[in-house]
Amino acid sequence: MADILEQVKAAIEGPIDFPSQKWTEDVMTYTLSAGAILSCAVGFLTQRLNVLIYVFVASILLCLLVVVPPWPQYNRSAPVKWLEPQVPKFE
Questions:
Q1: What is the DSSP letter of 47?
Q2: What's the CA gap between 36 and 29, in Å, rounded?
Q3: Residue-level pLDDT at 3
Q4: pLDDT at residue 50, as a whole number
Q5: Where are the alpha helices (DSSP H) in 2-88?
Q6: Mean pLDDT of 4-18
Q7: DSSP conformation class of 78
Q8: What is the rounded CA–CA span in Å between residue 16 and residue 24?
């Protein structure tokens, strides 16, 4: 069982740089917001709650498809060059 979980974890996890983290957060926010507005509009126009739910679930699945997999474009920026740690001087 642990081997299966490790394989799933390896398939989902992937390196992502800082600009891509911001981009995926923005995509997630805009996709879910637009999906909520669209699903409410479609549900209101059709007067059917199940249509509202289906449209919103479709927007969630679209968001998951774009954001969750470790796409190669999420790691295009150069790695961050960290500063060397400095030891504080106590006098």
A1: T
A2: 11
A3: 85
A4: 96
A5: 2-12, 18-46, 49-67
A6: 80
A7: P
A8: 10
Q: With the CA atoms of 82, 83, 84 and 89 taken in that order, what torsion angle do they form, in degrees rounded to the nearest 10? A: -140
Residue-wise pLDDT tens digits, 46-87: 999 999 999 999 999 999 999 988 888 888 887 888 889 888
Question: Which SS3 state, helix, strand or coil, does residue 85 take?
Answer: coil
Rounded distance between C-alpha atoms, residue 42 and residue 62, angstroms:
17
What phi and psi values does residue 86 have, to the nearest 5 degrees?
-110, 135
Main-chain dihedrals φ then ψ at residue 73, nearest 5 degrees: -70, -10
Nearest to 77 by CA among 39, 22, 27: 22
Contacts of 62 (CB under 8 A, 6+ apart): 31, 35
Return the pLDDT at 76.
85
- Alpha-carbon span 68 to 61, nearest angstrom: 10
